[in-house]
Structure formats: C-alpha cells, structure tokens
Design a protein that fits this description.
Elements: H1 14-29, E1 35-36, H2 50-59, E2 66-70, H3 77-90, E3 103-107, E4 120-124, H4 138-147, H5 151-164, E5 175-177, E6 181-183, H6 193-196, E7 202-207, E8 212-216, E9 222-224, E10 252-256, E11 263-267, H7 270-282
Parallel strand pairs: 2-3, 3-4, 4-7
Antiparallel strand pairs: 1-8, 5-6, 5-9, 7-8, 10-11
Helix pairs in contact: 1-2
C-alpha cells in the first residue's frame, strides 16, 4: 500500500481509475483505435507523460513491479521523477531489470529484451493522431479513420520518396494495426517497430494532453506502411558497437566526447547494456 496516508493508492481517485480502465478495455477490443478519456490534472506538466502516467496509475496494483525508462534510460530526469511519484503513492517496488518488471512505462523506447505475456508496456504519447501532419482537423481525421481513407498518408510517404529518395520520418513511423487502423506508435525509433508485431505483451498508449488512449493487444499484426519497391528500413548501425558492453545488436546512441572531439556509441537501453556487462564479468 501507499507509504503516504495523504495520497490515495496510486494518487488518482478510484472513479478516475475505473473510467480509464474502461477506456483501456475498449482500446484493447479495437486495436489501434483512439479512445477518448477524461484526462486528469497531475503534479507534472502536460507533455511530460501525463497520459502514460494515468494509464499506469489506473492499472498498477500492490503486487506489481514497476520499471520506468526515458529513451531507454532508467536514470534520466523524466524516468526518475515518474518512478518516484508512482512508488511514493503506491509503495510498489521498482526495478531497473526488464525481466523483473510487470509494468514498464516508457518514453519512446521498447526494451531490447523481448517482453513476456505477463508484462504490460505503457507508452507516453505526445501526438496520438497519425494523420496530424496530413490532416490537422481532428474531426476530418476521425472521419478518415472511420472510412479507412488513408490516401493522404500514402501520398505524403510517396512525396518523401520523390523528393529525398526515401521516407524521412525518423520516429513515430505510421503503422497499420490488424489490417484496420493506421496508428502512431509514439515517437519510438524505427528500430522498435518490428517489436510491436505479434508481440507477447500488451501495449498501452496514453496521451494526456490529447485525451486519448489506444492499445495493441498481444499477438496482433502491426506493420509499417511501405511500398513494394521501397521497403521499410530501420536505423543502420553497421560498423558500430556499444563502447560499454560491445553489443552490435541493439539500438545505439551517438555520444560526442568533448575531451577528444570524437564520437562513440552506447546502448540506448541501459538495463540491457548493464546486463551484458554483468554477464561478461561473471564469466
């Protein structure tokens, strides 16, 4: 239970949690569909993860173990403060180990370690509408989803290829869910898109500012939009390995070394990197 009697368990009131859970259930039944919900005020600014935080606070229980990451890192400001808020208002244990967590709240990364059926990953989403850049009107975009009219999105991707030779979208690459809805997978890198497809775990997406929740249930087809002659390509780290653990199979961050003026690469997923180092040390 909460270690602070001043707070309700998991901060928000029980009626709010029930309303959010109902929205989550509807989202699970309609993979990729954005479900409106009454986004509450929280002690963090909108745009800093209020949607994902509300989803986590609505589903977390005393028996859960929580992991919070920001761009793959457990120690960034966003991750540290959200983890502290949830822990202080629930008493739920926290972990840096992906395998130990039952709930993983993330800002724009999916852990490198494959997730299990008994795990839930919650995404903080700044812009949930994938058609935002081709149709700014929410009403018209909603109608386009209802009619599966995604011509403007395809034209936008085609124009990118004509002008630049390839699709220039770096993050939040649009995906087709269950051959039905186009979905914005939060600003995860293209490296993580494949992890959504037929995954073992439940993916929940919360956008607090936009008041939207959507989901990708386990074992659901999620495919990036692509042309037959211009297939989807993820980030290429060929020739680079992590300077800490030597990994060549993970998403890497480029780091500038001010002392030498050079660059090096490290794993974005700090837990994955640390686990590799520990295994090497144990050998």
């Amino acid at each position: 239970m909460s270690t602070h009697n001043d707070y309700n368990f998991a901060f928000i009131d029980e009626n709010a949690k029930k309303e959010i859970r109902r929205s989550i259930l509807k989202a699970i039944c309609l993979p990729g569909h954005q479900v409106p919900f009454a986004s509450r005020e929280l002690p963090i600014a909108r745009g800093w993860g209020t949607g994902g935080l509300q989803v986590t606070l609505a589903i977390i229980g005393p028996d859960d173990v929580l992991k919070v990451i920001d761009q793959g890192c457990d120690g960034s400001v966003n991750a540290v403060n959200l983890r502290d808020l949830i822990h202080r208002t629930t008493g739920v244990p926290t972990t840096f180990e992906t395998a130990q967590a039952s709930i993983i709240q993330t800002r724009h990364r999916i852990p490198e370690l494959p997730l299990r059926e008994d795990q839930i990953i919650v995404f903080q989403v700044p812009i949930p509408e994938p058609l935002h850049y081709v149709e700014p009107s929410i009403e018209k975009a909603t109608a386009m989803h209802a009619e599966k009219d995604y011509a403007r999105m395809w034209v936008s991707l085609y124009e990118d290829i004509v002008n630049y030779g390839s699709v220039t979208i770096g993050a939040s690459y649009p995906v087709m869910v269950h051959e039905n809805y186009i979905m914005a997978p939060s600003p995860i890198p293209k490296w993580d898109i494949a992890k959504l497809n037929m995954a073992n775990c439940l993916h929940l997406f919360g956008a607090g500012r936009e008041k939207r929740i959507y989901a990708v249930p386990p074992y659901t087809r999620v495919e990036p939009l692509q042309f037959e002659d211009k297939p989807f390509k993820k980030e290429d780290f060929s020739g680079h390995v992590c300077a800490r653990c030597g990994a060549g199979d993970s998403f890497l961050d480029e780091i500038f070394d001010e002392a030498s003026g050079g660059k090096y690469w490290v794993c974005s997923d700090t837990a994955y990197c640390d686990s590799r180092i520990q295994k090497e040390a144990a050998v």
